């Protein structure tokens, strides 16, 4: 998805943009501050790697990235790859996730200043500024944002056994984000800082009053600095260097008088992460390229938990890949080696080192505008540091969780002077083995991480896009996607209640359709999302999340005089005020409004 | 007179009325507001959503304990909803109080309900009371208001009433999250004054889970800390404790009693496992504990493996045992299997001799039981041919089925005294 489309959609963060992709399931705890993660083709959030300019955003603690923390304002594009992306010189990390979300930063082409001011429902205020420059081959930007929201949105549960109305409590957030990037030829760098303070609301349960709420609050301070350099020597030696330092601090506190339901927790977590990679590709011939990369990552997790001590993880990856192109036939193969080694002073001891090789293959054939493709990828996710070492939950004997994916697809492009269209469809089969899940220890009162479960998934993803320029003033575009999927639990053949039953939270059908109409400097975008019924437990056929339809609409007007532009944007999300949930008892906000003023020179 | 007594006894023993009546609390999934109440009668699940069907609203999130207060009243501690829910034995909600947040376990003398709580404040008729540690609250079931609350140890769990005194097991269960350590104590309170009169130090940490009571004896589980300290079980003699013998009133057993209950013969049945995060290994225990023998022998004697029919192999075949119970009126044995946890759990029923009678689908995390007395005299009908209709079981004079009959009891329409049959 490219810049113009990203801006046209009703989006505040990367998470909002990704829900328009085929095969994506969003998990959202609701509100601006609610954790937002994505799951692709039922692989699980931890199999989705999020990359910024080719460098992975990591969280060694829990393996998931909160997409609400990343803004779209500085993005050139956001893309989702299920197979490995094919480009000449890639780091080993880029081969190491089940599905891959690439965020590409925009390289500015001119000097500019843009300011946005927004007021939105539930006492939400936002201010954003972006300065760009381009001089003597150097370009870059500084982008800053400050947002505050009370997030006290209304919700209603109306069923046979309840009629609960209320306003979400403890759902407020305040965050600031500042980031800057600098580019020069093959050199790219990015620095990022995010600071937030938010409430963590719980599920809506029966209470007689609002006297006690389960107040928990979270503070995040995320910082990273990354730089990469890419150079081609003698037309055939591609060399790329990547480096990154990340520091993430998190504080979680529940020590408030309104919270009488949990322990009075005040924990601090700190992660430091140093990453470097060296990639080399040999592209002597037109039809063949060979590449290799070595990646090294050092991560340290500190936490003031009892029975816990610093954990240090050393993660090394090597990849050997080849790509061949001959008369429209494209073949690629790669083999990835991963080695994990943990050290800890905690009494439970460190997990055994993990050493695995995994392959991937792809084959494509293009004829004119039609491309046929097939690919296979086997990959695992290593247990996270929380999975292995978290006090009273971690299990250092965990095995990696494997995914095996097979895909067959086709893509067709068409373009004329006024009309452009593309259609693509893929059918796929995934197997996930040794799922890492939290289960109760038999005959005790505690839970622990275990390898349990096997998922088998078959599905179809389809996307169609069309663009039509009516005459010079009018532009129409249509984007649609569809996911039809059947994923089943194949964990325990003796358990007739769960075996071959659908995976919880996974819809059979989800689809979306977005239309954009632009007339001169006026633009109207309307998008419709449908997500089918999802079950959330096997215990009762009533334990389902109802299907939902979500319509968002956005009207933008921009006026330009010479170099100065000013505009207004009105967004209405969930136009028909449909009450829905991604997780039971975590209501989503319902209809809400955003009014944004934009000014640029 | 003699003949009319005979007639009455015949009627009591021979009429067919609801004999096995059981309420089961399904804890549900945490924060999903799907706690459910199951009602089971004479071998059949009447409903797995009994409370909501009877009342049109849900019980709440994580029901954690259920007791009979008096013949007309039942109390349920709904932990994550901060509610103590009262209902009649036919499932009709009476009232609920939220003045005891984070409530855990219950006991009652028929007039007052005593509730343990991990929280730090309690609204009472004497005003708001605040505590650093946990507390025990006292609810008057005439006004349903909290009339007093007293601080005990951190995170108090099981509670039992004996001779006007409350025995409260303290866990310190938040030790991994908070600054304090695990507790090792049992607090003794005067139930009337609600004052702590003594504290027993068992030297065993984390006295967590439901506690069972058999006359003067208590069976208290300790899961340990899952690291250095393994699970154990404390047998406590309340009389000894009330006599002031605080060091000799208990015996520590090296067995897990994660789920425990009292049998009709006064012994305890206890199952559970000992687990350590260091070794990642389990040891399973399935025991019947005779508290008197255990106390006399300091734990050397009085423990045997469960040897009632197929109960032991059936328990061992479960994927996740989640509760055991013996119906005090009939001796029928029950256990639940939580299974896959996101799926419906199962209720197992055995006859008193350990014959598996059936397995029944309940709901997520079925954990807590309460037997109702067999529905009684209002069901008496005039019948003839009493001998043919008799079920062969022994009954006491209130019409309750007995497993180990002693004293005066009725069987096959005949009155029995101390094993000697009297022919009228």
Task: Please describe what this structure looks like.
The complex is a heterodimer of chains A (601) and B (424). Chain A has helices at residues 3-8, 14-18, 385-389; strands at 24-28, 36-40, 48-52, 55-57, 75-81, 99-105, 112-120, 124-135, 138-149, 154-159, 162-167, 173-184, 187-199, 217-233, 237-253, 266-282, 288-303, 311-326, 329-344, 354-367, 370-381, 401-415, 419-433, 436-440, 447-451, 454-469, 474-489, 509-519, 522-531, 534-535, 544-545, 548-561, 564-573, 581-583, 586-587, 592-600. Chain A is mainly beta and 601 residues long. Chain A has a single domain (3-382, 400-433, 453-600), classed as Maltoporin, Chain A (Beta Barrel). In chain A, the strands form 7 sheets. Chain A has a 22-stranded antiparallel barrel. In chain A, strands 4-3-6-5 form a 4-stranded mixed beta sheet. A two-stranded antiparallel sheet of chain A has the order 1-2. The mean pLDDT of chain A is 91. Chain B has a domain at 101-297: Methylamine Dehydrogenase, Chain H. Chain B has 424 residues and is mainly beta. In chain B, the strands form 9 sheets. A 5-stranded antiparallel beta sheet of chain B has the order 32-31-33-34-35. Classes of the chains: A mainly beta (601), B mainly beta (424). Chains A and B meet through loops of A and strand 23 of B.
Structure described in brief:
With 601 residues, chain A is mainly β.
What share of the residues of chain B lie within helices?
A: under 10%
Strand content bin of chain A: over 45%
Point out poorly predicted stretches of chain B.
5-16, 377-388, 419-424
CATH topology of the domain at 101-297 in chain B: Methylamine Dehydrogenase, Chain H
Task: Look up the CATH topology of chain A.
Answer: Maltoporin, Chain A
Alpha-beta classification of chain A: mainly beta
Q: Could you tell me how far the N terminus lies from the C terminus of chain B, measured between alpha carbons in angstroms?
A: 11 Å
Rg of chain A, alpha carbons: 24 Å
Q: Number of DSSP strands of chain A? A: 36
The CATH class of chain A: Mainly Beta
| Mean pLDDT figure of chain A | 91
What is the percent of helical residues of chain A?
A: under 10%
Main pleated-sheet profile of chain A: 22 strands, antiparallel, barrel
Instruction: Determine the CATH superfamily of the domain at 101-297 in chain B.
Output: YVTN repeat-like/Quinoprotein amine dehydrogenase
Give the end-to-end Cα distance of chain A, rounded to a whole number of Å.
26 Å
- The helix count of chain B comes to 6
């Amino acid at each position: 998805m490219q810049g113009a489309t990203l801006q046209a959609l009703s989006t505040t963060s990367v998470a909002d943009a990704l829900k328009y992709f085929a095969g994506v399931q969003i998990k959202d705890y609701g509100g601006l501050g609610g954790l937002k993660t994505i799951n692709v083709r039922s692989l699980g959030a931890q199999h989705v790697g999020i990359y910024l300019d080719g460098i992975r955003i990591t969280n060694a603690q829990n393996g998931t990235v909160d997409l609400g923390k990343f803004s779209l304002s500085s993005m050139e594009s956001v893309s989702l790859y299920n197979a490995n992306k094919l480009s000449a010189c890639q780091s080993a990390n880029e081969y190491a996730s089940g599905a891959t979300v690439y965020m590409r930063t925009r390289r500015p082409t001119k000097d500019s200043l843009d300011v946005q001011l927004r007021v939105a429902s539930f006492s939400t205020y936002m201010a954003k500024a972006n300065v760009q420059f381009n001089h003597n081959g150097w370009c870059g930007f500084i982008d800053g944002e400050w947002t505050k929201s009370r997030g006290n949105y209304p919700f209603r549960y109306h069923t046979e056994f309840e009629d609960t109305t209320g306003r979400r409590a403890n759902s407020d957030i305040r965050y600031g984000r500042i980031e800057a990037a600098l580019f020069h030829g093959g050199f790219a760098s990015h620095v990022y800082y995010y600071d937030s303070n938010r409430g963590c609301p719980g599920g809506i349960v029966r209470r007689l009053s609002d006297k006690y709420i389960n107040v928990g609050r979270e503070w995040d301070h995320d910082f990273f600095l990354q730089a990469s350099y890419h150079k081609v020597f003698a037309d055939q030696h591609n060399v790329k260097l990547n480096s990154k330092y990340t520091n993430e601090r998190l504080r979680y506190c529940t020590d408030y008088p309104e919270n009488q339901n949990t322990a009075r927790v005040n924990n601090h977590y700190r992660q430091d992460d140093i990453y470097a990679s060296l990639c080399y590709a040999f592209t002597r011939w037109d039809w063949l390229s060979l590449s290799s990369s070595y990646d090294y990552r050092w991560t340290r997790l500190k936490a003031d938990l009892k029975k816990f001590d610093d954990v240090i993880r050393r993660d090394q990856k090597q990849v050997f890949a080849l790509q061949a192109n001959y008369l429209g036939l494209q073949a690629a193969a790669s083999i990835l080696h991963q080695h994990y080694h943990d050290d800890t002073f905690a009494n439970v001891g460190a997990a055994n080192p993990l050493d695995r090789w995994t392959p991937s293959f792809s084959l494509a054939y293009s004829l004119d505008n039609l491309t046929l493709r097939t690919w296979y990828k086997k990959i695992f996710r290593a247990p996270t540091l929380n999975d292995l070492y978290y006090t009273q939950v971690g299990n250092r004997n965990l095995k990696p969780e494997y995914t095996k994916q097979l895909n067959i697809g086709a893509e067709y492009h068409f373009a004329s002077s006024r009309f452009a269209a593309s259609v693509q469809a893929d059918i796929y089969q995934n197997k996930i083995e040794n799922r890492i899940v939290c289960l109760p220890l038999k005959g005790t009162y505690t839970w622990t991480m275990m390898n349990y479960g096997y998922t088998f998934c078959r599905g179809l993803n389809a996307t169609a896009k069309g663009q039509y320029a009516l005459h010079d003033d009018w532009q129409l575009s249509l984007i649609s996607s569809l996911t039809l999927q059947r994923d089943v639990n194949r964990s325990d053949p003796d358990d007739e209640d769960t075996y071959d039953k659908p995976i919880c939270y996974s819809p059979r059908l989800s689809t979306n359709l977005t239309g954009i109409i632009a007339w001169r400097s006026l633009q109207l975008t309307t998008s419709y999302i449908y997500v089918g019924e999802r079950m959330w437990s096997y215990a009762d056929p009533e334990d389902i999340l109802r299907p939902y339809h979500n319509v968002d609409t956005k009207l933008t007007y921009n006026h330009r005089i010479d170099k100065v532009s000013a505009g207004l944007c009105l967004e209405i999300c969930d136009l028909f005020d449909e009450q829905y949930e991604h997780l039971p008892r975590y209501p989503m906000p319902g209809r809400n409004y955003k009014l944004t003023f934009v000014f640029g020179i | 007179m003699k003949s009319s007594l005979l007639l009455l006894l015949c009627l009591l023993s021979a009429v067919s009325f609801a004999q096995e009546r059981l309420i089961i609390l399904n804890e549900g999934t945490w924060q999903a507001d799907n706690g459910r109440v199951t009602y089971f009668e004479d071998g059949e699940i009447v409903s797995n959503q009994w409370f909501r069907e009877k009342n049109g609203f849900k019980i709440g999130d994580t029901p954690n304990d259920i007791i009979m207060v008096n013949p007309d009243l039942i109390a349920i501690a709904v932990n994550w909803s901060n509610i103590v829910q009262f209902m009649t034995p036919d499932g009709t909600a009476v009232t609920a109080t939220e003045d005891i947040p984070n409530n855990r376990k219950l006991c009652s003398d028929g007039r007052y309900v005593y509730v343990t709580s991990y929280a730090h404040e309690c609204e009472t008729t004497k005003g708001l009371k605040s505590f650093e540690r946990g507390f025990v609250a006292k609810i008057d079931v005439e006004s349903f208001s909290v009339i007093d609350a007293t601080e005990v140890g951190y995170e108090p769990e099981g509670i039992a009433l004996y001779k006007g005194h409350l025995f409260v097991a303290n866990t310190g269960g938040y030790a991994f999250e908070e600054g304090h350590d695990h507790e090792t104590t049992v607090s003794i309170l005067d139930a009337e004054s609600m004052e702590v009169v003594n504290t027993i130090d068992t030297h065993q940490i984390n006295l967590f889970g439901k506690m069972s009571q058999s006359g003067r004896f208590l069976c208290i589980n300790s899961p340990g800390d899952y690291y250095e300290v393994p699970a154990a079980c404390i047998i406590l003699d309340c009389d000894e404790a009330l006599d002031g013998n605080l060091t000799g009133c208990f015996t520590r057993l090296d067995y897990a009693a994660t789920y425990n209950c009292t049998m009709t013969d006064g012994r305890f049945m206890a199952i559970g496992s000992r687990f350590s995060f260091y070794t990642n290994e389990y040891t399973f225990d399935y025991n019947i504990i005779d508290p008197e023998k255990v106390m006399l022998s300091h734990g050397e004697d009085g423990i045997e493996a469960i040897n009632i029919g197929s109960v032991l192999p059936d328990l061992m075949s479960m994927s996740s045992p989640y509760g055991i119970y013996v119906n005090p009126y009939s001796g029928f044995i029950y256990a639940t299997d939580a299974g896959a946890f996101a799926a419906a759990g199962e209720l197992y029923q055995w006859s008193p001799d350990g014959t598996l009678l059936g397995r029944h689908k309940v709901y997520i995390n079925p954990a807590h039981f309460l037997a109702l007395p067999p529905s009684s005299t209002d069901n008496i009908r005039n019948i003839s041919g009493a001998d043919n209709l008799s079920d062969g079981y022994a009954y006491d004079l209130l019409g309750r089925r007995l497993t180990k009959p002693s004293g005066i009891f009725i069987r096959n329409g005949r009155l029995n005294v101390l094993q000697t049959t009297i022919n009228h």
